[in-house]
Specification:
The complex is a heterodimer of chains A (316) and B (250).
Chain A: H1 2-33, H2 40-58, H3 60-87, H4 91-113, E1 129-133, E2 136-139, H5 140-162, H6 164-174, H7 176-180, H8 186-212, H9 218-233, H10 238-257, H11 262-268, H12 280-283, H13 287-290, H14 294-305
Antiparallel strand pairs in A: 1-2
Chain B: E1 4-13, E2 16-26, E3 31-35, H1 42-50, E4 57-62, E5 65-66, H2 72-78, E6 80-82, H3 95-103, H4 121-133, H5 149-162, E7 167-171, H6 179-192, E8 197-201, H7 205-211, E9 214-219, E10 222-227, H8 229-234, H9 236-243, H10 245-249
Parallel strand pairs in B: 3-8, 3-9, 6-7, 7-8
Antiparallel strand pairs in B: 1-2, 1-4, 4-5, 9-10
Classes of the chains: A mainly alpha (316), B alpha/beta (250).
Amino acid sequence: MLDVFIFATLNGLVTGLLLFMLASGLTLIFSMMGVLNFAHASFYMLGAYFAYSISLYFGFWTGLIFAPLIVGVLGAFVERYGLRRVHQAGHVAELVFTFGLAFLIEEAVQFFWGPGTKNYQQPELLDFPLFTLFGQEFPAYRGFMIGISITIFIGLYYLLTRSRIGIIIQAAITHPKTVANLGHNVPLIFMGVFGVGTALAGVAGVIAGPVLTTFPGMAVVLGSIVFVIVVIGGLGSLAGAFIASLLIGLLQSYAIASDVGVPDLLNLLGLEFARDHPLTDLWTMTLPQIAPILPFLLLVLVLIFRPTGLLGKREQ
Amino acid sequence: MAILSLKDVRKNFGKTEIIRGVNLDIERGEKHAIIGPNGAGKSTLFHLISGLYGVTHGTIQFKEHLIQNRTPYEISRLGLARSFQVTNIFPRMNVFENVRCALFWPHGYRYSFWHLLGRQTELNERTLQVLEQIGLQDKMHFPAGELAYAQQRALELGIAIASGAEVIMLDEPVAGMSHSEAENAVQLIRGITEGKTLIMVEHDMSIVFDVADRISVLVYGEIIACDKPENIRANPQVQEAYLGEVAVNA
C-alpha cells in the first residue's frame, strides 16, 4: 500500500510540475493581456515536435536547448505581428485569433510531420532506474523531469521577485500605463513575456514528448486540463496555478493508482445490484476509470463554491 | 524658449472633437495650472502631451523634440513625468519597491536578469532619498495598496518625481483629500517640484490660485484664457464660463 502511495505521489508530482510549466506561462500572459491564449498548448506541442526533429540529427540534449528557443521566438513573433494588432479590436477578436492559431498549428503539425505518432525517445543517458523501492523501479527520466521543472520554477521565482526586469514585469502586469510613463517600453516587455511563456510551454513539450507520446492531438489532451488549472487556481494567480497544478497532478495519479470503485462503496453500504441491470456500467465503475474526468469535476465544484478560483481575486 | 509648446492641437474621437485647437506655451520652471469644467478635455490634453493618445492635428514640442507622435515611454525618457487622475501605484508591491521601480530607467539601470536588487546600493540609497522627500520612509516595507489614501497619492508623487524629470504633470493631485491632507499635499508638491516645471490639473481653486504662476482655462476643448492668477480671477469671460462664485470666494 505504501509503495503504491509513494509512486503515485512521485508520478503526480511529475504530472503536476509539467502542468505548471504550461499553466505558469498561460497565467502570466493572461495577467498581462487579459485574454486566455487558446493556442498555448499548441506551443507545447510544437516544442515536442521541434525537439523530435532536432533529436534525429543532433540528439535529445540539443533539442532540449534549441526547441524551446525556437518556440519562444515564434511566440514573440505571434505577439508582435498577430496579437498586438488584433488587440485593438478587443478581447473577443483576441480569443478568436488564438483559437484560430491553435487550429492552424495543429494542421501545420499534421502537414509537416504527418498524422501518426512520432518515435520521440528519451535519451539513453537517462534510460535507467533512478531507484528501486518495494521492488518497483522509478525511471531516471521522470526524476530528470521533476528536477528540470523545479529548477525552472526557482529561476522563474527569482526572476520575477528579485531582478529588475521581474519587478518591472510585476508592475506592468497591473499598471502598464504607469510603467510606460516611467520610461519602460511596455509593448517590448509584453512581447518578451509572451515569448518566455511560450518557451516554457516548449520546454514542457520537449520533456513530456517522450513520456506522453508525440502526436498531433497532444495539445488538445493537455490544453483542456491546463485551462482547468488556471481557472481552479484563480485567473492571473501564479501561486494559485502552482497549487492547482499539483492538486490535479496528484489527484489524477492517486485515482489511477487506486483500485477502489463503486462496487466497494456498495459493499460497504451493504447494497447489491443485479449484474444484468441496465445501469451495470455505473455500478461497476472504478476510480481509475473516472480519473480523466476528475479535473473537470473539480472545476465545476470550484466554480460553484468559489467562482474566483482558489487564489483569484474578484474583479473590482 | 518655452519648454513645452502646443500648436493648434486637436483631438477627435470619431466625429466628436474633444480638443479644438489648443495653443499653449509653458516656460521652464513655471507652475502652470489647467482648470475648466468637467468634460472640458483637461485629462485628454494630459494624455496627448504624455503620448497616451495621438493627436488628430497639430504639434507638441517638448524642449527641442516634436513629441506628438511619440509613445509614452519615449516621452518619459525625454524628461516628462506624469501622474493620473485615479491613483496609479503598484498595490501589490511595498512602498520601497514602488519607488525603486521608478528609478531603473532614468538612472541607467537597464533590464537585467541576473543583478539581484538587494545588492544595488546606489539605487537603494536614491530610493531612500525619495522616500524621505515624500515622508514615507517609515512605511517603506508597507504594501502600497494598504496605505491611507493621502499616503498613496504622496507615493504616486514620489514615483513621478523619482525619475528626475524636468516637467512634472499632475492630474488632480489633491482630489478626494480632506482640507488638512490637501494642505500637506500642497506643501509636498511645492517642495518636490522646486526648480522644475509643474503642469497641474486641479478643481480646488484655492490650491490652484495658491500654487500656480499662470492658469489656463479650458472650456469645451478650447483655451479661453491663459494668464496670471489675479487676472484669471478678474476675467469676466472665465467667471461666466467656469469660475463664477468659486473664484470670487477663493
